[in-house]
Design a protein that fits this description.
- The chain is α+β, with helices and mostly antiparallel strands.
- It has twelve helices and eleven strands.
- The strands form four sheets. A four-stranded antiparallel sheet has the order 6-7-8-9.
- The protein is elongated and about 85 Å long.
- The C terminus is likely disordered.
Length: 289
Amino acid sequence: MFIAMFESMDDDYFRERAADIKDVSRRLLANLLGKSLPNPALIDEEVVIIADDLTPSDTAQLNKNLVRGFATNIGGRTSHSAIMARSLEIPAVVSCKTITETTNDNDMIVLDGEAGIVIINPTDEEIKEYQAKREAFIAYKEELKKYREILKGGRLYLKRNHPSGPCVAGSRRVFVTVDGEFYPCEKLPEINALNIGTVEEGFDIEKVRNLMNIGKLTEERCKGCWAFQFCDLCAAACLTEEGISGDYREYACGDVRRHARDMLRDVCILMESGYDFQEAGEDEDISSV
């Protein structure tokens, strides 16, 4: 009854939950009857799995070092098996309709999870093409690792300000709209120039790179500025109706210099008054200025 109720729902997300109920029911019945179920964890060679459908519990047991991907007759992007495949970074193409009828054991399969394409017994040219795509994707992932390390070190930039200001895009916070779009923070307007990705496609590394290097807009003019190390102007200080502007960023420099001057004046007054920064545990911050 519950399975039929979910299958009849209009919303794709809730309709896909019918497969979850089927999975739980199947596993409960198998346990009650003392029956064993096929265990994908026992796969001991590199394969592409072709099936009518994969349950969430099946997908969770896949060894991504051996299972190169899977293709199914049914399913959707919001099914738990598809969601888990993305989490495990296993290529998957679902809702192929007749994939189990058009493939045989030991067929060579090319699975393009990004484009949603399955090629059965590809030609030599197609194999070379997709080998090149795979190598490019691996290189792209390695590039992402570098930025992951940069983001992990975001706190370092907060002590010695990064040229983009105090924020490293995505390091301390990410603002997600109801439409699943990523923005560096909730203080910025939702315009294309500041959109750094989506829930479905992930981060747009090029846009993140541009925001992290927004100081390049005024690099030459900033090099000789005595307050450069105090600068905390982020993308919000560069926005005009047309987008991000270096001239508008420079216009805001006066506030930064005034703030830096006032802060240095306060430090000098405290030092002249005999304030012990080392005893207060603040000497590290003073030395890093």
